[in-house]
Every structure is written in structure tokens, then in C-alpha cells.
Amino acid sequence: MKYLECLICFKISLLTFCSFNLNAQYKESDLPLIPRPLEMQKVQGIFLLDNQVGLDLKSKDADIKTASTYLIDLLKNDYGIQIKQTGAARSIRFELDPQIGNEEGYILHVSPQLISIKSKSPAGAFMAVQTLRQLIPIGQKDKLEIPAISIKDEPRFAHRGVMLDVGRYYFPVSFIKKYIDVLAAYKINKFHLHLTEDGGWRMEIKKYPKLQEISAWRDSTVIGHVSDKPRKFDGKRHGGYYTHEELKDLVKYAQDRFITIIPEIDMPGHTLSALAGYPELSCFPDRKYRVLTAWGIQKDILCPKESTFKFVEDVLTEVMEVFPSKYIHIGGDEAKKDNWKVCSHCQELIRREGLKDEHGLQSYFIKRVEKFVNSKGRAIIGWDEILEGGLAPNATVMSWRGEKGGIDAAKLGHDVIMSPNHYMYLDYYQTPEMRKREPVAIGSYLPLETVYSYNPLPNSLTKAEKKHILGVQAHVWSEYIPNGKHAEHMTFPRVLAMAEVGWTAQERKDYSDFISRLKKAAKFLDTKQVNYSKYFLEQY
To answer: Secondary structure of 58-89 in the HEC alphabet?
Structure first.
């Protein structure tokens, strides 16, 4: 009896030692998981993913089927594996678990016989699928050996966004879909589409056809940087716009990847293209306006007349018919007040409404637009300039001129999305040599490490105020980004660093470990033919 007890104790000790030794040797950087999960533990064995694996849906939720269908299509299209819809010896199981606290949280457990995905919501199931995808070794086909592992994960922030400026340059829908695919692969869940600019109007508005006929096109575009002397222009007509049907299809495409598209119609500034089609919206209707051909902040902006508010409400009505997102971004940045200062209507409006100055007039403008948007059951986001003159009651602030606007808004009890330009503007140069080795960019220097170093929770905020920080967002402004290939070069891999900033707990971040994982993740970008910057490979 004592011999048997000793034998059992020995076996238990041996198993314990093996388990400890396995975990001691295992490094998280061995797997290219970006963003880094909250908790993970390697266990013994592998799961063989092949045509003999079945799908087990424990939930009737239709959106769970969206996540599982995405996985089925992914395995078929990328790896040549056809998942069975009925039971099998080995299976992938999706199950909703109300005990999981976070809407995007999940528990992924891979054992030799079962891949188990538990989540509170379908969004969490989709995030688990993206983690599972990263566990598949690059280059394998038909029979995929997935390491056995347990992962418990959830995001740090609810808003993890990327903005693409399609106003200055038109990007084809096919490229935007590819872009969304890669963003989804790294658990980014918000895609901010900057649809209007001085340099072009990109959304079809059926009630105002001149926005398509005139505002969507410019006659020429500056070559090189606007500061170059003498300025040169290419003499080529550029433009385009997205129809309602194209945008609805894009919304659905993003929704299937659990990404919300947030549309932006910038106002009252950055509206020269709209004035080119409808000069009556300006303070000086008799002037001739044309879509901008060289970059820079313009004096010509919308005039806060009743007819202008009618135009804005009509436009936003069509925007809200196409985009179901809770938030509508209405811009509010870089609105120069020169014309308002000499406009008799604006000055009379300031006096009649008891406003302090032109900043107060912009606040009046934004508050009127917000009231309309709120009446439709939606909410507005604005750039931090909307703080000037008084913040609209329910507005969310996107802080881009550093963190001050976000801090001020949070202290006032408003929700905030942190996107300070010196951390989150991906149109900046990414090498110290800048223009000597990179295509022309707007200026400044934003290396990968700086993006990764950002902490969206300022120390100056109290615990209660920090709750107003919804998350973080990176921006790709396109003054000097004329096509998709260039946009990819500026976006990747820096946006993967931003993804980890938005998802991973601050104490779990480690830049050297991130670089190790990024080198492996780069192979995935290669398979998707993403034109990412290779500079980090030279450095590390």
C-alpha cells in the first residue's frame, strides 16, 4: 500500500515538475499575439486543425454565427480547411458566458481535442477568433498545428480607433475593405471615416447633387510639400465619391468584423469643397469658390445662417440613414473666424444671442448641430476646438492638440477619446532621416516606440475623471498620402503599437517583447500583401 502511495506521489510530482518546466521555458514572445493578452498559460499538446474538425455552437445568437462564419471563411480561404457543420472527434466550440465581465472579453482554451471560445457577447467571440488566427503558424496549409494554451483576455479601453482621411484623396472601396480587414485582425473596433475636406467631398448627398458634380473634384493637386518653392501642380483632375449603396455595403462589411464606422462631416471649417458647389452657404455668396488644390487652413467656412443649418441637417439626415453608429463626428477643428468677424449677419447673431465673441459663435453652431443630432437618437464627437466658447452639453471630445483638451473635457464630465498628435498622427515621418529616405510627409517625427509608449490616462485626472477616457485613436491624414500603398506604409506597423496601447493593460506592456512579437506578425502582413514600413526590422 505504501509502495502504491509512493508511486502515485512520484507521478504527481513528475507531472508537476514537467508542467512547471514547460511554463518556465515558454516565452510569450514565442507567439506573435498582438495585442498582448491579459493572461495566458501554455499547456501540453497541440490541436490539429484539419478537415475533420467540427463546429459546435452552444448559442443561438445570430451574431455568434457571424463570428463563427468569419472563422469558417478564414480557414477555407486562407488555409484550405473546410470545417464540418456537424459533430466530429475534434471541434471548435462557441459559447456565451454571462459571467465574463467585459463585452469584448473572452476565454480561449486550446486542448488536443477541443478549441473552446467563451465570451460574454459575439464581439468577444470575434476577438477570440483573431487571437486563434494568430496562433496558426504562418505558412501551414491543410493541417494546422495550434499549440495548446489557455488565454483569458479583455480590452483596456472600449474605443480603439483608426481614422482614414478620404477627403483629401479618394481611396477605392476595395482598398478600404482591405484596410478594415487588417485593422480587425488586431482588435481595432472603430473606423473613423473623414468624408469631407477643403480638398474634396466624398459622400453622395442626394438632396444636394452639386456635392457630387462639383465638390467631389479638384482641377489639380500640389506636387511635393506646400512649403516647397516654387510650388508646382500636377494639372490632373482628382476626386470621386461614395454612393449610399457603397457606404452601406462598407458599413455591413465592417460590422461583420465587429468594427463600427464613425462618419465625419467636418464643419464649420474645412468646408471649401461644399462652398464650391453651394456658395450661398458662405458669408460672401458672390465670391467664387473652388475645391482646394494646395494644403492649408482656409478662411472660408460655413456661415451660421438658417439656410446653412437647413443644409447641415439635410446632410446629416442622409448620413444617419447610411451609418447606424451611435456617434456622428462633426469636426469643429481649425475653423478660422476671419470671415465671421466682418460678416454683418454673424455680428448681428453674436449680439442677438448674447455671445461673447466668434468663439462663442462656433459654440452656438456646434450646440445647434448637436441638438439636431441628439433629436435623432445619436451623439456627436468633435475635435478639441469645440471646447472654445463653451462645450456642447452631450459632446464627446477627440483630443488631438496634445492632451489638454481631453483633460479639460474629462474634468467637465465629458467623455473623451485621446488622440494627441505627438503620439497618434501616423502621417508624420517614422525615421529620423525623414524626407531623406521617406516619401514626403506633413512633417514631424513619430517613431514606432513613441506610439507604443503612450498611456491614454493622464496622471492629472482623478479616478472618477479617468472613467471618461473612452479610449485611444490613431489618425492617417492624407495631404501627402495619395494612394492605398502609401497609406499602408504610414499606417503599419505603427497602428499595431496603437492597438496594444488600446487593448493591453499598462503593466503588461513591454516594448522589447512587442518588437519580438511584431517580427513574427510581419509575416502575416506579408501574406496579406500589406506595404508596411520595414524600418523596425533594420533597428532590431
So the answer is: CCCCHHHHHHHHHHHHHHHHHHCCCCECCCCC
C-alpha 141/C-alpha 132 separation (Å) is 15
| 234 shares a domain with 124 | no
Quote the CA–CA distance of 319 and 369 in Å, as a whole number: 13
pTM for the predicted model, two decimal places: 0.94
Do 147 and 38 lie in one domain? The reply is yes
Query: Same domain, yes or no, for 230 and 291?
Result: yes
Residue 333's CATH number: 3.20.20.80
User: From CA 94, how far away is CA 42, in angstroms rounded?
Assistant: 21
* Residue at 201: amino acid letter: W
Q: Identify the bridge partners of residue 196 per DSSP, sorted by sequence position.
A: 201
CA pair distance 381, 389, nearest whole angstrom:
16
Give the residue from 153, 172, 194 where a domain finishes.
Answer: 153
Q: What tens digit of pLDDT does each residue of 467-525 get?
A: 999 999 999 999 999 999 999 999 999 999 999 999 999 999 999 999 999 999 999 99
Q: How far is CA 407 from the centre of its chain?
A: 21
CA distance 408 to 399: 10
